[in-house]
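Hi R.,

Here's the chain you asked about this morning:
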Amino acid sequence: MGDCQYPDCKAAATETWALVPLCEHHREAVRAETAQYYNRKITYHMRHFYMGIMPLIPWSRKE
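And here is the predicted structure, written out as tokens:
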């Protein structure tokens, strides 16, 4: 699968989030953060991990 696509991470990617290859640590961080967002415990702008991969998510790009 290659390397984790999270900025500055060189770990091996084992899973994906929104089609972005991520290591186990970053995928879990994005998953937990997303759960907090949908449970209204954090705001959209507080999604640090998600924002790190947002430019790589196909449907998030503005082309």
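One quick note: The chain has one domain: 15-60.

Cheers,
M.
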